[in-house]
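User: Before I run my own analysis I want an independent prediction to cross-check against. Here's the chain; please return only the structure tokens and, at the end, one sentence I can use as a sanity check.
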Amino acid sequence: MKRFLVTGGAGFIGSNFIHYLLREIPDIQIINLDALTYAGNLENLSDLEMDSRYKFIHGNINDQQLLEDILKNTPIDNIIHFAAESHVDRSITNPLLFVHTNVLGTANLLLQAKKYWTDLDPKNKLSFRFLHISTDEVFGNLEKNEPAFSEKTPYAPNSPYAASKAASDHIVRSYFRTYGFPTIVTNCSNNYGSYQYPEKLIPLIISNAINEKPLPIYGDGTQIRDWLYVLDHCEALLSVLNGGTPGDSYNIGGNNQHTNLEVIQMVCKILDEFLPESKSFPHDHLIKFVNDRPGHDRRYAMNLSKIKKKLYWQPSESLESGLRKTVRWYLDHKEWVNSILEKKAHKKWITTNYQNRGGDDK
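Assistant: Structure tokens:
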């Protein structure tokens, strides 16, 4: 039996990964530790409440006693660390929160995980893995014709979020170099898909479009990202767990470089197809350019040569096929979306973030 501790499993990628694991590995036990901050949502996992293979614990990775108790009382084969503050705009508003969670929280988790690993028997010690999920943003900005980020690209983070993730990556790597603790780091590109909190670009555009609200685009909309469908990401993470080398890092991307404007236009075309009777038809007339984010990186791109060669993984979804699945999911789960959109905290954040950009959601 495989036994996993997943941190941040009530969030977007974490909840998709837990569902993926339970589908792919029948003989498994999963503990999900999540602080349930604004982006953590137990509704993402409501279908698992009666599944004996799954257990939820409400708690924070900065709670050392809780971490110690969990690892003392429960055998664990792998720790998959998703828990993080992840929204760049929020990091600009409140950078210390990102340091507290992403840097100190990771350090606390590593400290307790290393204590647990040290006491394992030799066989379990050899097979144990600590998988740290990070981002391409740690590498900074690419110019239009520069080669894609590789695992050897120097770190050059440009936002408080990216800097906090870069720091956590370095702490994780240090535990391998200093203690021999079996860590692996993955750096992924922009994820999209089901259960993504509707402050991020694609779910924001979908929810605004179906509610006849402006579709805000930062700056000129020509910022380029590599778009990764979340279930492709989940497949890659399991491949890294099964075959990755401790102490190593792996880039994970979607091989889908598009500008933000192109992505929004694609979403609008899909919505036009799915909702031809919508009052917002055609949906692209709602597009509105707003003031850009401070220090906004122009381009990210991922070189996937290493993970393709070493682990034989590559993404399956094109951007169009992934977007069609994503838009369909949001249209079929309006109650999930509306439960978030109606929260006072969410409304306050949207107002705060867009009121000085010339693009509020009124």
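Sanity check: Residues 187 and 251 are 5 Å apart (CA to CA).
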